[in-house]
Every structure is written in C-alpha cells, then in structure tokens.
Amino acid sequence: MESLKSRAACVGLLLALAASSGCVAVAIVGGAAAGAGVVYWVEGALRTTLGHPIREVHDATVQVLNNLGVGIVADKTESFTGEIESALRGGSEVRVYLKAVSSSATEVTIRVGTFGDQAQSEMVLNAIEARLGDTRPEAAPKPAGG
Questions:
Q1: Which end of the chain is more exposed for a tag (fewer CB within 10 A), N or C?
Q2: What is the pTM of this model?
Q3: Are 113 and 120 in contact (CB under 8 A)?
C-alpha cells in the first residue's frame, strides 16, 4: 500500500510539474520497476528508467545504434555511468547517457541532434526496449504548450 501511495504522490508531482512548465512534457505509461514507464521530454532530451542492469542496457543500446546508424563514434561506459555517441543514417548525432540507479535499473537519456528530435529519440528508445524484450504502449510524450 505504501508503494501505491508513493507512486500516486510521484505521479501527482510530475503532473503538477508538467502543468506549470511550458517546456516540459511528461507521459505516464505502465511499468513494473520503480520509475519505469515514466518518460520525460525535457530540454531536447528523452529520459526514462528501464528495469535492467546498466550492462544489459548498454549492450542493447550499442546493438540498436549499430543497426540504426553508422556505428559507434565513442563509448565511455563504466560500472555506473555511460555515454554512447553515434549518428543516424540521416546524419543526426545521437547521444545516449546511462546511469545505474540500482543493480537492476538504469536511467537512460537520449538526445538526437543539437536541439533534440523527439520523434527520433522515441524511435531509439522503442528500439532499445524491443531489444531488451520490454513492451510499452505507444504513448510518446507530447510537449506541454512549449
């Protein structure tokens, strides 16, 4: 019950944040891990938490970027953090930042292009989730008035 109250408080806070800021978008979708399923679009980057260890998310990200792009330009991944750089076939630079939030969850931040391309970032995230075997309803975050 405490977990449900905690989630409800978190959802309320996120909704209040979305309503008060014209440049922040929040989409709430289902997820099993704490924080999983909440997708933020903030300042040109897509951010979510996946219920997988950082090594699994790293490996899936590298495979996806190799399939979508022209290969990995740089990969600076360690035990708890990572930054992977690539480019899509159209030439847009892709940066994926990883941060272990627990032994079984990883925060993922995706930025495509200089100012951020929400549709392309969502496509990269969907591909990473598919590679990991995760499914999520198609509910891309929408800009909240800004």
A1: N
A2: 0.69
A3: yes
